[in-house]
Structure formats: C-alpha cells, structure tokens
Amino acid sequence: MAWSDDDLMELLRMHTNAWNAHDIDALMALFAEDCVFEASGGSDVTGERYVGKEEVRAAFSAVFDSMPDARWRDGRHNVVSPGYGVSEWTLAGTWSDGSRIEVNGCDFLTVVDGAITLKNSFRKNRPPLQPPAT
What we know:
This protein is an alpha+beta fold. It has three helices and six strands, in the order ααββαββββ. The longest helix has 17 residues.
C-alpha cells in the first residue's frame, strides 16, 4: 500500500489525539523503533534529545506525569511534503507546583514507512501562570 498525504494527515491527527488522551501505548504505536524526539527545551541546540523507543517513551511519560491535565488544543495539521508534516497546537496544563502553562507550539514530524522517525518540538517561552487565588 502506498503512503499518501491523506495517510500522513491521519497520522498527524492520531498523534495529537493520543497526546490528549494521555495514551502512551497509542502514542508509541505511531513511532519507529529507532525514533528520535527533540524536545522544546534543553542544553543542546536540538533541545534535549531522546533516541530510541525506550528513551522517547520515558520522555513522553514524564510529560504526562508532570502535567496530568495537559491538553494540546486547537490542533492544526499540515502535510508539507511526502513523509513530512507539521502540527500546531496550544498546550495548556498545570505543573505539580500549581502553576499553569498555556503556550503555542508545533511539532515537525518526519515519517518513514508509516511510522514517526523524528519528532522535533517547539513552543513559545512564556513564564508560568500563577494559580488563581482561592
């Protein structure tokens, strides 16, 4: 079966849906064994870099653990070229200290043979929002 732009668009949607469901198994099913995740932050020019499904899974799980109410809202997906797409979103969630995050961001996803091989993430750098006064 040939890999089409429609297939890639569906994979982009499935990726965002798995994040929003906090479904680590569904999420990791979209990734190749030798996948790479380049996070939004980190000390390297690429951000923190995770290589292989085990490292990537641990990094994604850490996101879910640190922000159990995280949501990637307003997903907008674009096929750029065969095997390459971009998903834009607004991340909103609460950190364990009660501060909140709400920032725009995007993922550049490289797909080979129907599996994500590279997830390169970017998001705005915004100070945490303080929790509402009670």
